[in-house]
Design brief:
alpha/beta; OB fold (Dihydrolipoamide Acetyltransferase, E2P); 8-stranded parallel sheet; 4-stranded antiparallel sheet
């Protein structure tokens, strides 16, 4: 009897990049591997979206639209290219208004995409309705998503097979146009029996020819068993990747899955030897990229504190940059408490980032001493309905600290159109006003404008760059008899666990301190008087919203930080005058670093 063929999408070039390299991969580097995968027979690829949209502008100094064009040119006209969208956020970290949601679908269609997988971390259908409508209206295949995870021990009230079945029935009863359904487990924590029961029920609920798709990560080590359970239950498609971006925080490997299906009634129907060759090409293409060791590991703590593979490495990369990686075990453990009281939104972007940022604050400043603004907005309802009501005490704290009421309405209704502001910004900067630039300005904000102005810089963690940096600061291997060279010398010193690069001049010159991406410079010390506003988390200063001498109101935005893939506003705790600004745009800061001083 012929075996049943299980289809798969190759996620190597999107989710694989995000889960292993924090989405920081240059297009020119991966195209040879993509071409080899096409030659091996792959016809369905994840080609962008999610973090791989902003990251290209932020870190790779290239356009995501150009990347999608190159992808389509390489795979040919017939391949199915899929991207990932976050409901009303689409490919931004902040919610986008209706006109930008519509433009997102049109631009992705224009640049070669055929399918958009559309999810909402809260499983709030309101956040999927308009975005799904526009995806379908653009002539794209709309794959609607039900997000999944296992709750920490002792938690109940959501994320059961019955909950997922209820949501599926609600989707079918709604007027949202869609063509297939994906069950998305970004943390890889849903136990195989729950997978089986969920897919079995779904198979009985949807039309017989409806495609059911399962997505997971191997972070907890159960990805293959999840897929086998789903196959037994009637899944149509699964997501797989190739080495060096398979397993661990990414998807299970194509070859491993092929091997696991031996002796069953199912097959991937591939030539495994061809994929061995593809993986060799891919390994060589990525050989200069730094692979975080945690991305290759199975983490037994993930089922207790669900952290998506796609966010885990982005967070640890940021913690490396800010010298706080040693805090990671404490922060990941604190996530259990943050999830327990936060309403059980699925741990996937952007909610996973809300969880992680709040867990960081709990770990460093004391549990619930400070509410992260994004986490607070979530429990107050500004991102939609959480699966269950958040803990009333946390809601009260968030309302008091953010000075905001609980919100019960549709989040889209409070967003103004984005095109007028985006066009104004483009004009002010002397940039062409076209649909691509409007979308870049709206979804990527100041970093998108920097890219369009030619001010962006590549920030990809490469082994060769790390080696060059090490050799630059290494001690000489031999002693020269020649007279010492004049000029400053550089040393790396550590003070209270923080690394600084110190430049010492000849002839008694005063030492100076300089910084690099991985060695943050100490921030300017604040004056003795006035109220110091400190960084709530480690991160990068994205932009300043005020100037020295400016009068500000309480709760007015002072600056915007980027931390753990999220932008967050730092607001004035009191009314006053900006006496000093201790940071500049582009600076990397530690949590608790002085940002500004206000005189009341």
């Amino acid at each position: 009897m012929a075996k049943k063929r299980i289809e798969f999408m190759d996620t190597s070039f999107r989710d694989g990049f995000q889960s292993v390299f924090g989405a920081r991969v240059s297009t020119r580097d991966f195209l040879p591997a993509l071409e080899a995968a096409v030659d091996a027979g792959t016809t369905y690829f994840e080609a962008g979206g999610g973090a791989r949209f902003q990251s290209l502008f932020f870190y790779c100094n290239e356009s995501a639209f150009d990347m999608m064009d190159s992808f389509r040119k390489t795979v040919g006209p017939d391949a199915n290219l899929q991207t990932l969208a976050r409901g009303i956020n689409v490919v931004a970290l902040n919610q986008q208004p209706r006109d930008m949601i519509d433009l997102h679908a049109k631009m992705f269609k224009k640049h070669g995409i055929t399918t958009i997988r559309n999810f909402d971390a809260l499983n709030d259908l309101r956040n999927l309705s308009y975005s799904g409508e526009r995806i379908a209206a653009a002539g794209l295949h709309h794959q609607i998503v039900i997000t999944m995870m296992d709750l920490p021990p002792g938690c109940e009230g959501a994320h059961s097979p019955d909950d997922y079945s209820k949501m599926l029935r609600n989707i079918l009863d709604s007027d949202i146009p869609f063509h297939s359904v994906c069950f998305k487990d970004s943390s890889g924590t849903v136990h195989p029996r729950k997978i089986y029961e969920t897919i079995k029920a779904a198979r009985k609920t949807v039309p017989e020819d409806m495609i059911l798709h399962l997505h997971t990560h191997d972070t907890a080590g159960i990805g293959i068993s999840q897929y086998l359970a789903a196959i037994d239950a009637g899944i149509s498609r699964i997501d797989l990747a190739m080495s060096p971006v398979s397993g661990g925080t990414a998807q299970p490997d194509i070859l491993t899955m092929w091997h696991a299906m031996k002796g069953t009634d199912f097959t991937l129907d591939i030539d495994p030897l061809k994929y061995v060759k593809v993986e060799e090409v891919f390994e060589e293409a990525m050989s200069d990229y730094f692979i975080p060791p945690e991305s290759r590991m199975v983490s037994p703590l993930i089922p207790f504190s669900p952290m998506p593979g796609g966010a885990l490495t982005a967070n640890t990369m940021m913690m490396r940059d800010t010298g706080t990686l040693h805090l990671y075990p404490k922060v990941i453990k604190e996530m259990e408490e943050v999830i327990r009281v936060g309403g059980f939104g699925t741990s996937v972007t952007p909610v996973s980032q809300f969880y992680f940022q709040q867990a960081y604050l709990n770990a460093t400043q004391g549990r619930w001493e400070k509410i992260n603004p994004q986490y607070g907005n979530m429990v107050l309802g500004y991102f939609g309905r959480t699966p269950v009501e958040p803990d009333p005490e946390i809601v009260k704290l968030a309302s008091e600290q953010l000075d905001k009421p609980v919100f019960k309405e549709d989040p889209l209704d409070i967003l103004e159109d984005g095109r007028p502001g985006a066009e104004k910004t483009l004009q002010e900067n002397g940039l062409p006003v076209n649909d691509e630039n409007v979308f870049i300005a709206s979804s990527c904000e100041s970093k998108g404008i920097d890219f369009l102005l030619g001010k962006a810089k590549e920030n990809i963690r490469r082994k060769s760059a790390e080696t060059a940096k090490t050799e630059k600061t290494a001690a000489p291997k031999s002693v020269s008899t020649a007279a010492p060279a004049l000029g400053p010398r550089e040393y790396t010193i550590t003070v209270e666990g923080k690394a600084y690069q110190v430049q010492v001049a000849e002839s008694g010159g005063s030492p100076t301190v300089s910084s690099s991406a991985s060695i943050p410079a100490p921030q300017q010390a604040p004056s003795a008087s006035g109220q110091v506003v400190e960084a709530p988390t480690p991160g990068n200063i994205l932009r300043l919203e005020v100037q020295t001498g400016e009068t500000v109101n309480a709760n007015q935005t002072l600056l915007v930080m980027e931390a753990m893939k999220m932008e967050s506003e730092v607001k004035a705790p009191v009314a006053g005058t900006v006496a000093e600004i201790h940071v500049s745009a582009g600076d990397t800061v530690q949590a608790g670093a002085p940002l500004l001083t206000l005189n009341s």
